[in-house]
Amino acid sequence: MGQEFTCLDCGKKDIGNISCPNGHYICDECHGKGLFGTVKDYVITTKSEDPLEIAELLMDLNSIPMLGCENAWITAGALMAALKNEGTAKVTNEQIDEALNRTKKQAIGGYCGLTGVCGIAPAIGACFSVIFGATCSKDRETATTMRIVARILGTIANETGPCCCKNFVRKSLVEATKIVKEQLCVSLPLVNENIACKHSDRHPHGCRKEKCSYFGKDTI
User: Which residues form the DUF5714 domain (predicted)?
Assistant: First the structure.
């Protein structure tokens, strides 16, 4: 259950659900502070058409937390950047910015367990919503976006126990690449799906190890 905490960084009192074993709490505003700009700057300038390649580079940054909504920003940015660079969907930097801002509003750390909606799912949803021009007043565009989000959630649900943002980013981008092909007739390259995860020792709840398809693999 949520309880009142005081943020260790800014001192703000907040109702939260997640703290470290010693009771230390970081509010959502301070968690990953400054990293939104880091993600945005990179995805705007990268020339890669491979969303997994983009995401892996960002997730490997020492400043990116193992768990948290920063991974949702990476997911949205990686997919939109890859689509922009591939060219067919005519994605613009303004659309990338919009997808990231929408993701930032809905991706909240820990809510994969607290509500069943991992922020990576609305991150993918934000991308397709921007591309389709979906709004609450529209029919097909919004319905299609919702079905895509449900599909991403189904993909993520197969990977829980405990939840892992790195796994969720990869699985969601692989699935999103299939959806891009189906919905936009765009083929994005996935040069290396056979990823060997470098983050196993960082997981605060313990890595799933052999239960995760990225554990202990040899890179191509």
Answer: 39-215
SS3 15: strand
Encoding tokens for residue 112?
């994969």
Peptide linkage before 122 cis (omega within 30 of 0): no
Cβ–Cβ under 8 Å, residues 119 and 106: yes
Paired strand residues for 155: none
The tens digit of pLDDT for each residue in 156-199 reads 999 999 999 999 999 999 999 999 999 999 999 997 788 999 99
Q: What is the per-residue pLDDT across 69-99, written as a single tens digit (0 to 9) for each? A: 999 999 999 999 999 999 999 999 999 999 9
As given in the structure block, the two tokens for residue 154 are 């189904």
Helix (H, G, I), strand (E, B) or coil at 62: coil
Residues 6+ apart with CB under 8 A from 143: none
